[in-house]
């Protein structure tokens, strides 16, 4: 029996932080020491498990954990990997792609942007043409699942055209890794970025990079920031058996270790991906019946988060949000610049039965509002 004081007041239907299991939350109820072998072994176990989850072999790939939210890890990769002789091409179709450009600009990394607009997927043919036209581009960065809209970009096709042209690939799979299978090694992705509090169902506090070991090994001395030096972070973890360079989020690391064990019990990424896909399909169907239409066509929707258009010009998101929160569900505002939307996440400890219940509540509320 858990103390009711720790029960969740609502289900988080957001893209992270998200609803976690009781097991994950319980792993944080102790104060753990750092530096000793027990703790370092947990870090090492997490690192090797991440490599397996990315379908990589430890001969060619390595995992590095880094304190902070997901953006810190994106910044760490961009500012450690690119030197002044490199040039980055950022493929944008939403706020998270845009954030990579902002990071590059702030760090004075030479870069170009190719924008596809917020409701179009990244087009591999356009990427190929852009790379053929500009041989000075050395690295390409893009977002797999653009959480701004819920758009899933064609990862395999985009990576393929970049690797065929012998450029390095940096991909932000923050909101998709763990919820969709990704064959990092088969695709030859150089740097893949994600975080603890999304599809792997941990809590916020650190993110990670799964990197081609040779590519990372070439980055010594390039970092433009000391605390975000990914090479240094990796060296210390590698050479000291799982030691973090600076104070690590110990509670969060234990919770993540538990979350990875629970992923295994669930049946690994294939089983989790199937549950999320089922959640999302039921959500879109149920919402349509309730009078809400998805922004994107089905083929572009990720299983992670879905954008819905406001049903009418006088729709009050604030009132809708409050009513749903009172009924035990927290949803997400929109982030689009051109269309009025809100978003609903289908990841975390949320199951198809929860979605069915949620859409019944939405149906009742929406009838009432009209
Ligand atoms: C969540 C997310 C991030 C990181 O956001 P933080 O607020 O820094 O954790 C980056 N990219 C994508 C696509 C995301 O969904």
Automatic annotation (TrEMBL):
Keyword Transferase assigned: yes
Give a single Pfam family match.
Aminotran_5
**All residue ranges annotated as the Aminotransferase class V domain in the record:** 82-328
Q: Which cofactors does it use?
A: pyridoxal 5'-phosphate
Which enzyme class?
transferase
Q: Which InterPro entries match?
A: Aminotrans_V_dom (IPR000192), NH2EtPonate_pyrv_transaminase (IPR012703), PyrdxlP-dep_Trfase (IPR015424), PyrdxlP-dep_Trfase_major (IPR015421), PyrdxlP-dep_Trfase_small (IPR015422), SP_NH2Trfase/AEP_transaminase (IPR024169)
Could you state a single Gene Ontology molecular function term?
2-aminoethylphosphonate-pyruvate transaminase activity
Residues crossing the lipid bilayer are none
Q: Tell me the subunit arrangement.
A: Homodimer.
Q: What does this protein do?
A: Involved in phosphonate degradation.
Name the record gives this protein: 2-aminoethylphosphonate--pyruvate transaminase
**What taxonomic ancestry is recorded?**
Bacteria, Bacillati, Bacillota, Bacilli, Bacillales
């Amino acid at each position: 029996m858990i103390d009711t004081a720790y029960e969740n007041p609502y289900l988080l239907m957001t893209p992270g932080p998200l609803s976690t299991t009781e097991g994950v939350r319980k792993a944080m109820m102790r104060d753990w020491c750092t530096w000793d072998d027990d703790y370092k072994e947990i870090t090492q176990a997490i690192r090797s498990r991440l490599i397996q989850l990315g379908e990589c072999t430890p001969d060619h790939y390595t995992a590095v954990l880094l304190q902070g939210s997901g953006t810190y890890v994106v910044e760490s990769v961009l500012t450690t990997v690119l030197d002044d002789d490199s040039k980055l091409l950022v493929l944008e179709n939403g706020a998270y792609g845009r954030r990579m450009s902002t990071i590059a600009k702030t760090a004075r990394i030479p870069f170009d942007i190719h924008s596809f607009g917020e409701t179009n997927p990244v087009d591999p043919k356009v990427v190929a043409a852009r790379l053929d036209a500009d041989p000075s581009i050395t690295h390409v960065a893009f977002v797999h699942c653009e959480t701004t809209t819920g758009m899933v970009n064609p990862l395999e096709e985009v990576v393929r055209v970049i690797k065929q042209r012998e450029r390095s690939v940096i991909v932000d799979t923050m909101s998709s890794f763990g919820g969709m299978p990704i064959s990092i090694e088969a695709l030859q992705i150089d740097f893949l970025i994600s975080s603890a509090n999304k599809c792997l169902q941990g809590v916020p506090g650190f993110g990670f990079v799964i990197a081609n070991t040779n590519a990372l090994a070439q980055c010594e001395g390039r970092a433009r920031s000391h605390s975000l030096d990914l090479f240094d972070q990796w060296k210390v973890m590698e050479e000291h058996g799982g030691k973090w360079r600076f104070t690590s989020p110990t509670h969060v690391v234990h919770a993540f270790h538990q979350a990875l064990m629970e992923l295994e019990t669930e049946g690994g990424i294939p089983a989790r991906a199937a549950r999320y896909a089922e959640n999302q399909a039921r959500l879109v169907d149920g919402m349509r019946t309730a009078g809400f239409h998805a922004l994107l066509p089905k083929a572009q929707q990720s299983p992670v988060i879905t954008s819905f258009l406001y049903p009418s010009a006088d729709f009050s998101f604030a009132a809708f949000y409050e009513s749903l929160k009172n009924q035990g569900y927290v949803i997400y505002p929109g982030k689009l610049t051109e269309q009025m939307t809100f978003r609903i996440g289908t990841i975390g400890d949320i199951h198809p039965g929860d979605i069915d219940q949620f859409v019944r509540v939405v149906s009742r509320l929406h009838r009432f509002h009209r």
